[in-house]
Specification:
about 210 residues, alpha/beta, 9-stranded mixed beta sheet, two-stranded antiparallel ribbon, 13 strands, about 35% helix, about 30% strand, binds 1-O-pyrophosphono-5-O-phosphono-alpha-D-ribofuranose, binds uracil
C-alpha cells in the first residue's frame, strides 16, 4: 500500500482555516489555494530521487545534487484543480500540464467526463494529480483510472481537504497511489459535501456563485 500523508505543518493548517471561512473572498481564496498547493507539493516531492552532478561555483569545482530520472507532469481535475496548478509550477516549473475534465452529477454524485488532454509522453512521467477536494473519491479515482489507461504508472495525488469516505475509496481502488492531504475532515453530508469543508471549491475559486 502506498502512503497516505496528512499534513501537520502549521502554515498549511493556518491557511486551510482561512479558506474554510465563509467571508474569505474569491481573490484571497484563489491566492491561498495556490500557496497551500505549493506547500503540499514540497512534501509530495520529498522522495524524488537525486543524482550527483559536477558543478562549478565562482570559487571552485564541486559535486552537487540534481533530480534524477523521470520528468514530471501535473494533472489538475477541472475545474477546481486548476487553482492548484500555479502553486505546483512555482516549485516544478519544467513540468508538463495535462487536464482531465470531470464534474459530479448532482443526483448520483458519480463523475462525468467531459475533457482529457494529457502530455503525449505522460506514461513515462511522474504524474501529480491535483484537486482541492476529495469527497466521495469518485472524481479522483476516475481521473487516476484514466491515467492508468494511458499507461501512467507513477501517480501521486494531492488534495487540500479530504473526507474519510474518499480516502478509503482511493486506498481501495488505487492502493499504489500516494496521497498527500492538507486536512482530513469528519465526514460527508447528505449532499456529498465535506463537513466542515469549505463549500464548493470550484465556485469559490472562480467566483461562480
Ligand atoms: C469537485 C471537486 C472534485 C469533486 C470531489 O468538483 O473539485 O473534483 O467535486 O468530489 P468527489 O470526491 O465526490 O468526486 P465538481 O464536480 O464540483 O466540479 P468543479 O470543479 O467543476 O466545480
Ligand atoms: N466538491 C466540493 O467542491 N466541495 C465538497 O465539499 C465536495 C465536493
Amino acid at each position: 500500500m502506498a502512503k497516505t500523508v496528512v499534513m501537520d505543518h502549521p502554515l498549511i493548517q493556518h491557511k486551510i482555516s482561512y479558506i474554510r471561512r465563509t467571508d474569505t473572498g474569491t481573490k484571497d481564496f484563489r491566492q491561498t489555494i495556490r500557496e497551500i498547493a505549493m506547500l503540499i507539493c514540497y512534501e509530495a516531492t520529498r522522495e524524488l530521487q537525486l543524482e550527483d552532478t559536477r558543478i562549478k561555483t565562482p570559487i571552485c569545482s564541486t559535486v552537487g545534487k540534481q533530480l534524477k530520472g523521470k520528468k514530471m507532469a501535473i494533472v489538475p481535475i477541472l475545474r477546481a484543480g486548476l487553482g492548484m496548478v500555479d502553486g505546483v509550477l512555482d516549485l516544478i516549473p519544467a513540468a508538463k500540464v495535462g487536464h482531465i475534465g470531470l464534474y459530479r452529477d448532482p443526483e448520483t454524485l458519480n463523475p462525468v467526463e467531459y475533457y482529457c488532454k494529457l502530455p503525449a509522453d505522460c506514461a513515462e512521467r511522474e504524474v501529480f494529480v491535483v484537486d482541492p477536494m476529495l469527497a466521495t473519491g469518485g472524481s479522483s479515482a476516475e481521473a487516476i483510472r484514466m491515467l492508468k489507461d494511458k499507461g501512467c504508472k507513477n501517480i501521486h495525488f494531492m488534495c487540500i481537504i479530504a473526507a474519510p469516505e474518499g480516502v478509503e475509496r482511493m486506498q481501495c481502488m488505487h492502493p499504489d497511489v500516494d496521497m498527500y492531504i492538507g486536512a482530513l475532515d469528519e465526514r460527508l453530508n447528505d449532499h456529498g459535501y465535506i463537513v466542515p469543508g469549505l463549500g464548493d471549491a470550484g465556485d469559490r475559486i472562480f467566483g461562480t456563485k
